[in-house]
Amino acid sequence: MGRTIELDIPPRNGYLALVRRVVSTAARLDGTLADRRIDDLSLAVSEACANAIDVQRSAGSPEPVSVVLELDGSSVVVTVTDHGGGFSPDEVYPIPDPDDPGRLRHERGLGLPLMRSLAESVRFTATGDGTAVRLEVRRPGPPPPNGE
To answer: How buried is 119 (Cβ within 10 angstroms: 0-12 exposed, 13-18 middle, 19+ buried)?
Structure first.
């Protein structure tokens, strides 16, 4: 049986800790997701929310940022939706490799690669006035039967 938790936050960074707390608490409900994966998901969601807040503030949108958690036996899915006008992740300037000296000039812009490295699935969808970012972390499957 799945559960859904919906949270609307004002577009202010002071609410990021609340979002991380709700995500980590909800992801622990059935005890099957390892603490490390919960931390990964919380960080990825925090990055998505921080991006949403930044873009909304830049656009002057006072609308709340929507955070929807969907919990079921196979995964935890979190969708963060902003009202900041939207963007295409394919048009974001690529970040240099970690060993490239040019990387030192990048104080920002690491959120998208970070989200992609922390979640099994990341999907960006344009909405009418913004972007929805869907992050999925899968729960571990049952162990294989003995001898297999």
So the answer is: buried
